[in-house]
């Protein structure tokens, strides 16, 4: 780049999403699209060959498709120079996703990429080659100014680190039209439309600042939260910096993204249909609980036991005494707490609640759904705010 210049910045993206079913279990992109392998015969070559329906190659390029591993769902909105238009383009695709599934920007198992494509042209429409000359400094600048987002992204950050996606060779790649693919962020920025707008607006300003200050030494103040507001103000992104530094996602990143994008507030309390009768499931799933919660039954062989886990904190939470009193009153049996079975800990939900066979049968015999609902709400609150459950006798089990 011969001299500092004012440029036009085109932004694109292809974020990956975790797809979940009604039991908060993963659904692969192949299952989502119901991909079938069909064997066909070619008379000219006298050979059989395989094709897929729908076509895999088209799904690798379509606006709603699959990633290269065929596991994550990927959306590819139209590129734009305007961050507000990017939000609109993304919203259009999200509104087209099937309502029978849930879509998350966080994964306990798989590395979700929130890759952002950056293309630069001069005002006289000449393409600027970003890779490799500008790529290194650009991704470092983007990393620096996105630090508050990375600090809030602990689950994805750890998953991506384990799979090697945070290494330097993975940070940036050459992309279309002399551009680059910035690969450090996860899909977390897709959680809310407001966060998406902030991230794209910030990246655009970072790139513009870089090209108007070529060959100059720049210093940006920082603290434990990342860049200070003065640093953001220096690149004309004070508003974006203020929003990022005050970022509090709470449990939003464990909600279906349609919750914020399309206003689809589908109930997020899910009940194992194999553990409860239909009426019980229907009542529990109607509870006014805004935290993703999965309620399941513990096997009779486990005895009179209960379990409570906060999956975001990766810990068991102490069950309140009032719950034990309720269980004894309705079943006539004293209950105790056990650890959540191992195979349930990978569910993409915040709160996991396990109920004994005796308690479930007593509820279904008495039809006292309202009382159970009140106890479930108490358990959810304890799962969010209560103390951890510590005991030296905890034993993991793969049995439900």
Task: Describe, in short, the structure shown.
The protein has 14 helices and 20 strands. By secondary structure, the chain is α+β, with helices and mostly antiparallel strands.
3D architecture notes:
The protein is an alpha+beta fold and 400 residues long. The chain folds into two domains: 7-260, no CATH class; 267-385, no CATH class. Helices cover 32% and strands 20% of the residues. The protein has 14 helices and 20 strands. Strands 15, 16, 17, 18, 19 and 20 form a six-stranded mixed sheet that branches. Strands 1, 9, 10, 11 and 12 form a five-stranded antiparallel sheet that branches. Strands 2, 3, 6, 7 and 8 form a five-stranded antiparallel sheet that branches. Strand 2 and strand 3 form a beta hairpin. Helix 4 (135-145) crosses helix 7 (193-212) and helix 7 (193-212) packs across helix 9 (238-245). The radius of gyration is 25 Å and the shape is globular. 38% of the residues are buried. Mean pLDDT is 90; it is low at 392-398.
Please work out how many helical segments DSSP would assign. Answer: 14
Structural class: alpha+beta
User: What is the beta-strand fraction?
Assistant: 15-25%
Q: Could you say which overall geometry the principal axes of the C-alpha atoms support? A: globular
Contiguous low-pLDDT stretches (5 residues minimum) are: 392-398
Specify Rg, calculated over alpha carbons.
25 Å
The N- and C-terminal alpha carbons lie at a distance of 62 Å
Largest sheet: number of strands, sense, barrel closure = 6 strands, mixed
How much helicity do the residues have? 25-40%
The domain tally reads 2
Mean pLDDT rating: 90
* Oligomeric state of the chains in view: single chain
What is the number of beta strands?
Answer: 20
